[in-house]
C-alpha cells in the first residue's frame, strides 16, 4: 500500500511546470514551482514543522503550549497543521488587508485569529507585531516562532526547496525568481542553489513597489505575503543578485493571466514573481532555465484579484474582462 503516515509527511516535493503562452517571444525556458500543492496550500508548510521541531528540542515549546505568531495566513496554516498533530493551541495575529477566506481557513483548522489594522506603523501598540508580542508575553506557555527572524525558516528551504529544484532541473537551472516576504524562501533556496552550482545560478527577488527590498520605505501595497517595511533577519541580501519591483496593477494582471492562459490559479505574490521573471527572461537566451516559485493558490483571493469590480475599484483593469459574468436575459 502506498500512503502517507500523516498529512505533514506530504509537505514538499512540489512539481515544476513550464509556462507556454505567457512566454511568447521569450527564448528562455520558464518553469514555475507549484507550492500550492503542499497540503496546507502554500510554501509555508515547509517552515512550520522545522520551526516547531526546533522549538521542542530547545525547550521553548512544551506539551499543552500555545503558538502565537503574526502571519498573513499561510504560515498559520502550516503551523496549525503541525500544532493539531501535537496538541498545541494556536493564536494568529493578522493584518486587516488579509482576505476573509484566508481567515476562515485558519479557524477551520482550529486556530484562533486576532485581526489588526494595516495602516499603523510597526511600533504602534495595535500593529500586528506589537499585538503578537503582547499575547506571547501574556499567555502562559506561549511560543512565538518569529518567522521573520527564525533561522529554521530559511533552513527549511535550504534543505528541501533548493535540492528539489536542483534535482528536477538536472542541475540546469540558471535563474531563480522568488517573491520576498520574510525572505526565508529566497535566502534558503538561493543559498543552496548558489552553493551547489558554485555561484552559477543567479538569484532574483521580486518585491512590491514601495517595499524596502527594492529601495522603498514600506508604503502600503495590496499584494499579500510579500514586501516589508523593515529588514527581517530571515533575509540575507548577499544571496540575492537583483531585486525587481512590481506594481500591484502588474502583479494582479499577471495573476489573472496565469489562470486564464496557463490554467494556473495562484495568489497575487505568484503573479508578481512571474511578472518579474518574464521581465528578467526577456534578456536571456534559449539555454537559460528560469525557475519561479509560486507560493500559494488563488482560492483565497477570489473576492479580490479575480473579482472584476474589486479590480476596477482600484483602477487595476481599465477595460472590464469580456465575457466573465452574464446576466440572464429575460
Ligand atoms: N507569498 C505569499 C502568499 C506568502 O504568504 C509569503 C510568506 N510571507 C511569501 C510569498 C514570501 O515568502 P517568504 O516569507 O519566504 O519570503
Question: Can you tag this structure with a few keywords?
Answer:
single chain, 330 residues, alpha/beta, 6-stranded mixed beta sheet, 4-stranded parallel beta sheet, 9 helices, 34% helix, globular, binds 4'-deoxy-4'-aminopyridoxal-5'-phosphate, EC 4.2.1.22, cystathionine beta-synthase activity, pyridoxal phosphate
Structural account:
The protein is of the alpha/beta class and 330 residues long. The chain is 34% helix and 15% strand. The protein contains nine helices and ten strands. It has a six-stranded mixed beta sheet with strand order 1-2-10-7-8-9. Helix 2 links the parallel strand 3 and strand 4 (89-95). The relative contact order is 0.15. The mean pLDDT is 93. The structure holds 4'-deoxy-4'-aminopyridoxal-5'-phosphate. 4'-deoxy-4'-aminopyridoxal-5'-phosphate is lined by residues 42, 44, 72, 74, 179-185, 224-226, 267, 269, 295-296.
Order of helices and strands: EEHEHEHEHEHEHEEHHEH
Which whole number gives the mean pLDDT? 93
The number of distinct β-strands equals 10
The value of Rg in angstroms is: 19 Å
Largest sheet report = 6 strands, mixed
SS-derived structural category: alpha/beta
Strand content: 15-25%
| Number of DSSP helical runs | 9
Query: Widest sheet: strand order?
Result: 1-2-10-7-8-9
Helical content stands at 25-40%
Small molecules in complex:
4'-deoxy-4'-aminopyridoxal-5'-phosphate
Shape descriptor reads globular
Distance between the termini: 55 Å
Stretches with pLDDT under 50, minimum 5 residues: none
Catalytic activity: L-homocysteine + L-serine = L,L-cystathionine + H2O
GO cellular component, one term: cytoplasm
Organism: Leifsonia soli
Protein name: Cystathionine beta-synthase
